[in-house]
């Protein structure tokens, strides 16, 4: 036992006060013989023994009360248990040692990371276990592949295992304890000894702990499984997190600005002063100035890059380092394209320039811009042609579509192809609603009620985040007021429409605020419906400069994004679709920015023309490159960017009460790691509450006994 305030123990000397007072009171009386007292002696003699016992009890209660008072304020703590005593069990046991290797375990204090402390604790645990026990050692991120499985560790095997543990490093995956424990449960079912024990070595950060684990712990409690925790974590003290590096531009083109947004959180208690981040593009480093970030706030920082050639490019952003380095960097693979393939389907071709439905569109998308490859097709021919897979398809005043062509469009859009639909006099409204709207299940964002004549002045852009035409909000009201349709397609929105899937991007400036531009997300693709024509038959807008801007930004925002799974989060497997007929036999995945062994990748058929490249779950962050051989094209490669799972950056540590809630009926057995050396011990239990109860009991008992002794008898 030890005390948190040992100096206050000096007050226990006052416990002698009742004894001294008792002795002094005895000396105050002078014995005088008096004849009548002889008669009283006979009476007192019979009560003398009882009175003496009562007085001694009263004296003991008063002395104990003073002792309890000063012992309580000195805050005594019961002695802890050493590691050997903590791990002791009766009989031979099947033990599973779980080492937490999640992202939070790379949190660094002044001299070592939490994962280094976990490895130290694991070595000390293994040194305390005898060869008679069956031992499995697993990593929380990969419990299905133990370092050893149900082994009886002799000295040589134990040394080999410790050497292997010394070489381990934490991964950048997030914690998911229910999955880890379910895998451990399967291992316990295969264990040989009746005594079963799970030893969890973790920093006990709250991320990854969910209520689902309670049922499993309750069952383990019924099955007499013992669970012990070794807490190697420290109280976190602030952290900066680069949550994501999101693309604002849907496609990246050569020699055009590509916009990204970095989401940065300051989870510390102090403001993060403005500083510099490092933006790396294909190995070239450029500083980026960061604004000051207040405490416990998140800011969005715009970042823009340019690429001088097509192909895969690696973009990396790193913010200033802190105690948790792995969540300070985000990597992104960007596929840069030489041009965007656009097919304009003209429902009413003209004989002269700018008389066709798509002439103004073709000019808006291609004039002065070599990045757009525009193909104009007459609807009568396009309907019967084999449908290719361009990046964007525009239907301008196309009268009707067959069910088969609609189905083909749905497949393309669901895979990411963009689709724009313009209204016109030729539209068969009944068939459009039947085949394209489909009661809200089709490509069309809304049901077309009728074609309406109405003079309106101006276009009102809705304040919607991630709107394909958001750029038009920067135009002056005078420019937007010059958009004056004479006719437009009047639509009706179902009140139950999912606003995440269907959105009104702009409205006409009429009394009803009629929808002018609508958007629908369909699978991986997006559909925009313009309620006017693409030519000048319903408005003079195609002759305005704002029309060129509107068509370009809308087309670029909804055109097909060719990202196909190159960007992942640690813990996810690679599943990448290849355009090849012959399935490669083998390949490797090698790290480009970290020292780690290569990973095996596999290939499997999807259909006659496509192959899937797959890998196990990737546990580490970084940039990796897959390489393989094909008979037709020779050696092929593909880069992948894997980012840390920043959900594990949540800086909240479980206390004993919070941890017990997850354990259910399982009693909490916890030991805290105190340092690098063999110094594992429990903190013990503070006893002042028990002493306070004892003090209260003494005072109540003393009052009652004093009243009893002082009664008239």
From TrEMBL:
Keywords recorded for this protein, A-Z: Membrane, Transmembrane, Transmembrane helix
Gene3D superfamilies found in the cross-reference section: 3.40.50.880, von Willebrand factor, type A domain (3.40.50.410)
Transmembrane regions: 6-24, 56-74, 687-709
Database matches in InterPro entries: Aerotolerance_reg_N (IPR024163), CARDB (IPR011635), Class_I_gatase-like (IPR029062), Double_TM_dom (IPR011933), VWF_A (IPR002035), vWFA_dom_sf (IPR036465)
Domain VWFA: 92-265
Xref: SUPFAM superfamilies: Class I glutamine amidotransferase-like, vWA-like
Entry annotated with the keyword Membrane: yes
Alphabetized NCBIfam families for the sequence: two_anch
Protein name (record): VWFA domain-containing protein
């Amino acid at each position: 036992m030890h005390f948190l305030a040992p100096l206050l123990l000096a007050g226990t000397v006052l416990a002698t006060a009742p004894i001294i007072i008792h002795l002094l009171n005895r000396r105050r009386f002078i014995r005088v013989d008096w004849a009548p007292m002889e008669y009283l002696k006979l009476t007192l003699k019979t009560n003398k023994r009882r009175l003496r016992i009562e007085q001694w009890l009263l004296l003991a209660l008063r002395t104990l009360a003073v002792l309890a008072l000063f012992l309580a304020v000195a805050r005594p703590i019961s002695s802890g248990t050493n590691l050997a005593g903590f791990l002791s069990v009766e009989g031979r046991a099947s033990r599973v040692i779980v080492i937490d290797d999640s992202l939070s375990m790379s949190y660094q204090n002044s001299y070592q990371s939490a994962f280094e402390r976990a490895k130290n604790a694991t070595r000390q645990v293994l040194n305390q276990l005898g060869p008679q026990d069956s031992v499995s050692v697993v990593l929380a991120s990969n419990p299905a592949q133990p370092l050893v499985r149900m082994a009886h560790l002799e000295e040589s095997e134990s040394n080999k295992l410790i050497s292997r543990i010394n070489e381990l490093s934490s991964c950048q995956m997030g914690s998911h304890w229910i999955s880890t424990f379910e895998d451990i449960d399967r291992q316990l079912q295969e264990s040989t000894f009746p005594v079963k024990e799970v030893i969890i070595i973790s920093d006990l950060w709250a991320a990854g702990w969910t209520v689902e684990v309670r049922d499993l712990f309750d069952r383990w409690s019924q099955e007499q499984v013992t669970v012990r925790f070794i807490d190697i974590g420290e109280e976190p003290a602030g952290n900066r997190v680069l949550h994501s590096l999101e693309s604002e531009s849907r496609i990246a083109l050569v020699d055009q600005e590509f916009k990204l947004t970095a989401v940065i959180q300051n989870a510390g208690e102090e403001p993060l002063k403005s500083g510099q981040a490092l933006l790396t593009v294909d190995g070239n480093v450029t500083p980026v100035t960061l604004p000051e970030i207040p405490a416990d706030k998140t800011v969005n920082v715009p970042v823009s890059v340019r690429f001088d050639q097509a192909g895969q490019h690696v973009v990396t952003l790193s913010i200033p380092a802190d105690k948790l380095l792995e969540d300070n960097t985000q990597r992104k693979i960007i596929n840069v394209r030489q041009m965007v393939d656009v097919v304009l389907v003209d429902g009413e071709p003209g004989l002269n320039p700018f008389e066709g439905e798509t002439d103004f569109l073709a000019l808006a998308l291609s004039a002065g811009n070599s990045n757009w490859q525009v193909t104009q097709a007459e609807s009568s021919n396009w309907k019967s042609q084999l449908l290719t897979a361009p990046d964007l398809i525009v239907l301008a005043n196309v009268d009707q579509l067959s069910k088969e062509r609609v189905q083909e469009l749905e497949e393309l859009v669901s895979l990411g192809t963009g689709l724009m639909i313009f209204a016109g006099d030729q539209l068969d409204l009944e068939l459009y609603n039947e085949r394209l709207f489909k009661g809200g299940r089709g490509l069309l964002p809304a049901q077309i009620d009728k074609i309406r004549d109405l003079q309106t002045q101006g276009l009102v852009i809705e304040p919607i985040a991630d709107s394909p035409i958001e750029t038009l909000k920067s135009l002056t009201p005078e420019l937007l007021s010059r958009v004056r349709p004479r006719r437009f397609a009047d639509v009706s929105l179902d009140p139950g429409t999912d606003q995440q899937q269907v959105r009104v991007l702009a409205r006409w400036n009429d009394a009803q605020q009629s929808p002018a531009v609508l958007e629908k997300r369909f699978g991986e693709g997006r559909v925009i419906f313009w309620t006017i024509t693409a030519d000048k038959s319903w408005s003079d807008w195609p002759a305005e400069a704002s029309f060129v801007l509107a068509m370009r930004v809308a087309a670029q925002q909804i055109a097909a994004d060719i990202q196909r799974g190159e960007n992942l989060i640690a813990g996810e497997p690679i599943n990448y679709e290849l355009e090849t007929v012959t399935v490669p036999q083998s390949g490797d995945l090698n790290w480009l920015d970290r020292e780690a062994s290569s990973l095996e990748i596999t290939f499997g058929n999807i259909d006659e023309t496509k192959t899937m490249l797959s890998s196990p779950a990737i546990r580490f962050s970084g940039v990796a490159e897959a390489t393989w051989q094909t008979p037709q094209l020779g050696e092929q490669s593909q880069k992948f960017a894997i980012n840390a799972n920043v959900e594990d950056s949540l800086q909240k540590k479980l206390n004993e009460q919070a941890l017990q809630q997850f354990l259910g009926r399982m009693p909490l057995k916890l030991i805290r790691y105190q340092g690098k050396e063999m110094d594992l011990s429990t903190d013990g239990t503070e006893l002042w509450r028990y002493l306070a109860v004892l003090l209260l009991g003494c005072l109540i008992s003393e009052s009652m006994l004093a009243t009893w002794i002082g009664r008239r008898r």
